[in-house]
Amino acid sequence: MIILFFGLWVSRSKDGETKNAEDYFLASKSLPWWAIGASLIAANISAEQFIGMSGSGYAIGLAIASYEWMAALTLIIVGKYFLPIFIKKEIYTIPEFVEKRFSSQLKTILAVFWIGLYVFVNITSVLYLGGLALQTILNIDLIYGIIGLAIFAAVAGGGALGAMLRYSVSLLTGAGFFGINGPVATLIVNVRSSGLMGLLAGLVAGGLMVPETRRAFIAIGLLGALTTFSSFSLDAGALYQKQGLGMALVYITLSLCLSLGSFALCYWLVRLPS
């Protein structure tokens, strides 16, 4: 909760202010040095350090610490000599650097490569080490620990993607029929997500085998974050205050009827006999 409130406080902005990639990757250049350093350390710490490096330290001694000493020296060199150049050229990610230095095709290849490397090397090792820790500490079978962590990771990943998609829709849509920003985007994501949920439910009811991790990623994570009852309630209240009771009732009725109708239609479409 402390981290959440701190993030909200730092990211606060004036009304009408538009944020861009620099605000996202550099936190609007508003963070103090100690917060930047803490974020670097926090981003680097995971089961690899708590389990992997601790075990290596027990097995081979202090020599494993050279891994982190090397990282510390590298960060100093990058921060002193390379980072000012990147900021001056408005380069915030490695793919952006590759695109400006070489080509957009190479940028795409690099991005796909790193995504694959992260999924098949980094995440798998973290899941194994996390499962090993659960087995050692709580006597949970290794395979069940890995599956449980994978489900949590799938929900978190899907939730992040769904939230970003919902935010993108809110940026692309304007006031529209309701006269204020918000309700149109919320209505779109709720109706669309309800239809996708109905499609998934219909396929599963029809006998389609969907792995638990994939189901958690899509249904609980992606679609759960894409739909938003809290924003729906907030939009209804805002419409009541600014446009009157009639417009608020229209919005509530449209949201409920279209969302439920979208779910039912997609469900029965995939359940119809061929």
- Estimated structural class: mainly alpha
Give the N-terminus to C-terminus distance in angstroms.
Answer: 51 Å
How many DSSP E strands? 0
Q: Sum up the overall morphology in one term.
A: globular
Portion of residues in helices?
over 70%
Spell out the key features of this protein.
12 helices; 79% helix; 274 residues; 0% strand; mainly alpha
List the helices and strands and how they pair.
Elements: H1 2-10, H2 21-26, H3 33-44, H4 47-60, H5 66-88, H6 94-101, H7 104-138, H8 142-172, H9 183-205, H10 212-226, H11 229-242, H12 245-271
Helix pairs in contact: 4-7, 6-7, 7-8, 8-9, 8-10, 9-10, 9-11, 9-12, 11-12
Quick recap of the structure?
The chain has helices spanning 2-10, 21-26, 33-44, 47-60, 66-88, 94-101, 104-138, 142-172, 183-205, 212-226, 229-242, 245-271. It has 274 residues and is an all-alpha fold. Among the domains are: 79-140; 160-274, no CATH class.
What does this entry look like structurally?
The chain is an all-alpha fold. Among the domains are: 79-140; 160-274, no CATH class. Helix content is 79%, strand content 0%. It contains twelve helices and no strands. The chain has helices spanning 2-10, 21-26, 33-44, 47-60, 66-88, 94-101, 104-138, 142-172, 183-205, 212-226, 229-242, 245-271. Helix 7 packs across helix 8 (142-172) and helix 8 packs antiparallel against helix 9. The longest helix has 35 residues, at 104-138. The protein is globular, with a radius of gyration of 24 Å. The mean pLDDT is 80.
